[in-house]
Amino acid sequence: MTVASDARIEFYPLRARILSVRSAHPVTPRMIRVVLAGEDLAGFRTDNFTDHVKLCFPNDETGEHVLPRMYADGRWNMREPGIIYRDYTVRRYDADAGELTIDFVAHDHGPGGRWAMRARPGDRLGVMGPRGTYHMDYGFDYFLLGADETALPAAARLLEELPRDARVRAFFEVADAGEEQRIDAPDGAEITWLHRDGAEAGTTALLEQALRTAELPEGDGFAWCAGEAGTLKPIRRHLKERGFERGRNLDVDGYWRRGTANHDHHADED
Ligand SMILES: Cc1cc2nc3c(=O)[nH]c(=O)nc-3n(C[C@H](O)[C@H](O)[C@H](O)COP(=O)(O)OP(=O)(O)OC[C@H]3O[C@@H](n4cnc5c(N)ncnc54)[C@H](O)[C@@H]3O)c2cc1C
Hints:
The chain has 4 helices and 14 strands. It is an alpha/beta fold. The protein folds into 2 domains: 8-133, Beta Barrel (Elongation Factor Tu (Ef-tu), domain 3), CATH 2.40.30.10; 138-267, 3-Layer(aba) Sandwich (Rossmann fold). The strands form 3 sheets. A 7-stranded antiparallel β-sheet has the order 5-4-8-2-3-7-6. The protein has a 5-stranded parallel β-sheet with strand order 12-11-10-13-14, with helices on both faces. It has a two-stranded antiparallel ribbon with strand order 1-9. The chain is globular and about 55 Å long. Residues 2-6 have low confidence and may be disordered. The structure holds flavin-adenine dinucleotide.
């Protein structure tokens, strides 16, 4: 995430964990909530809505999880052979209950989506990170959010954590009406659900059109958008034209790219 004016980066101590599934159930027909637990969760930290972990999935044939080695200087290399990892948002962490919650989009195109669709209590998962956090600046006059379903866990977490009097204009693109979720948002938050209604994920301009025509509240806003990288390009350009500035009040993050396995979201910034 790009840092807003008063936001600051904090790095967490790095640790590789193996956790077990405590429960797995659908939030909507295409979103699966997996609650992870285990002794390894001790010392887990997360402070902000874009915090994410690298989940290490088991090899389909051996059932083994390959986790990266931790080097003496505290670094790791996720690209070592055998590691099957993908980025997922920390939807919720409950230290008292010892539970880490991740919301997975259910799809069968890759190991992440497939693992989630089959997850059962007792299954194990490798969890790396979060590497650190960007402390959010809540001092903006309003928040403008755009997200597809992969970014909905982060957006929903932000809506839950914002002050209750925050002004929010949010646009969420999902497959259809059945994918709308109940979110504990600030009282004045205006949320618009956009339905693909049959179109494939990552192929529509629904978010772009909605953001282009959105009337924004008065004052200095913070814009955050995440989803399929290709669909975000014109959105990034448009928001810059509207005066949002990367590094101050604009963060547009490609969470996945159609046709690419394990898209590197750091590669997208322009
Ligand atoms: C910071 C960050 C946080 C994220 N948080 C979440 C989260 O909380 N929940 C979540 O579900 N995802 C999240 N994602 C997105 C997730 O990492 C990607 O969707 C990832 O590609 C899924 O891995 P996979 O193994 O299922 O598919 P991959 O093996 O990576 O990809 C295989 C194929 O599937 C396609 N594909 C990938 N994702 C989707 C999708 N959602 N719908 C349709 N086709 C797809 C790819 O384009 C590719 O063609 C996040 C990404 C980032 C960078």
